[in-house]
Amino acid sequence: MSELKHSMTDTVMDALGDVKDPEIASVSILDLGMIHEVEVTDGKVKVSVLPTFSGCPALHIIERDIKKALESLEGIESAEVNFVFTPSWTTDRITPEGRERLKEFGISPPPANHVMGEPWEIDCPYCGSTYVTMENIFGPTACRSILYCKSCKNPFEAMKPVADMG
Amino acid sequence: MTQETLKPQEKAALIELLYQMGDDDFILAFRGSEWLGLAPHIEEDVAFSSISQDMMGHANLYYRLLEDLGEGEADRIAHLRTPEQFRNAIILEEVNGPGTYLKEPDYDWAFAVVRNYFYAVHKQIRLESLRHSSYEPLAEAARKIMTEQYYHLMHWEVWFKQLMTSTDEAIERMNAAINKVWRDFGGVLTLGPSYADIVKADLIDDEAVMKKRWMNKMEAVFKEVGAFYPGEPRMERGNGRNGVHTDDLKQALSTLSEVYATNPATGW
Questions:
Q1: Which of A98, A87, A82, A86 is nearest to A143 (CA)?
Q2: Regarding the domain delimited by A2-83, which CATH topology (the fold level of the hierarchy) does it fall under?
Q3: Alpha-carbon distance B81 to B22, whole Å?
Q4: In A7, A146, B31, B201, which residue has its Cα 20 to 30 A from B193's Cα atom?
Q5: How confident is the model over A76-111, as pLDDT tens digits?
């Protein structure tokens, strides 16, 4: 029985890997480190999700997409999504793969181990140069900032670092 | 404490506090959103609208905590209450200036900077205290909000200090805005009539302690930019925590809820 449960959890995790961030089409919510816990019991799944930014309008869409992806799985009757705040979502939860995918989308990943208040080190996602300037800490979505690369002369975005403030 | 271990008196105090903080963020986020397309330059438009979006998210977090305590759905809390049921401070509901965002807006940028900066400083103090709140779900929400508020405070502090050390015209307009905000900012710094119960339940620090922290910070900032520090802020138009409000709130709520109120049963 425990083996069966285990494989079902794997199937669920695989399915979550296909649920993308609605605002960054190349990155899954799993890559972004938004999945905290998955619990499968008798065909019912409970997924705890860590919201990135609290005003993010994509949260409702993410909830809907998770339910849709999981409820279409064989052996899953219903899926429940809960947004939780402990632990806090921080940008160091983004997987190495997620960081690569962000770059493909033209978004620099945040510094891996950022301490709030300290300067960021951000490389250009296109040419890798460190010769960049911050145009605006705030960007087109709550989680992004706008920068400019002085080497390859491209504007680009970076994911705003978020670290736990204790 | 959790939802299950709250005593009735503590629960009532917690509900009051959540309305105050949720409504403060909600109404100021709305006033911020009215600036969209009207900010001094395009980068500021991006920044200010992003901040307003975050703040609306913070209001939503508080309203969801209220929902968990049996106060009804968060959307209904936001859209279907009467002005008297709102607990925000009066200065936060005030219009941005003459006109509306649709018709001849003559908004005052100095007022936007001063109001938002003073509020962000207080919000930071409030959140630092809430991190140790006896009600664990509130402490968790506060830790989340802090990661975003960090950038808001930085933003408004830059604007405030820049303009306060800029041209004569800028300084004159900023001082007029400071005088205006000072007359009512006391309303932000109070915990209202349930103050004693809120503090007794260990939900947040004593309002006198937090007020002192705010005033100390302000005095230091005023000194840094070479401005006259006006002393204790007042509460001339009444206490919003008591449900006392101006027509500005009525106007804001009717605009905000116009679509929702046409059919509350629909998922908007």
A1: A98
A2: GMP Synthetase; Chain A, domain 3 (3.30.300)
A3: 13
A4: B31
A5: 999 999 998 888 898 899 999 999 999 988 899 888
Q: Can you read off the two tokens belonging to residue B53?
A: 């979006």
From chain A, the residues in CB contact with B78 under 8 A are none
Distance from CA of A159 to the nearest CA of B (A): 13
Contact at CB, B46 and A86, closer than 8 angstroms: no
Q: Where are the alpha helices (DSSP H) in chain B?
A: 8-33, 42-68, 74-79, 90-93, 109-130, 136-164, 168-182, 195-200, 207-224, 247-256, 258-262
Query: pTM for the whole thing?
Result: 0.92
What residue spans define the domains of chain A?
2-83, 107-159
Backbone angles phi, psi at A142, to 5 degrees: -55, -30
Contact assignment for B51 to A86 by CB distance below 8 Å: no
| Distance of alpha carbon A62 from alpha carbon B261, whole angstroms | 26
Q: ipTM of this predicted complex?
A: 0.84
* Per-residue pLDDT tens over the stretch A28-40: 999 999 999 999 9
Q: CA of B47: which chain A residue's CA is closest?
A: A138
Q: In this structure, what token pair is assigned to residue A156? A: 């680009």
Interface of B with A (CB under 8 A): 43, 46-47, 50-51, 53-58, 60-61, 131, 140-141, 143-148, 150-151, 154-155
Question: Tell me, what DSSP letter sits at residue A93?
Answer: G
Shortest Cα–Cα distance, B165 to chain A (Å): 22
In CATH, the architecture of B8-262 is Up-down Bundle (1.20)
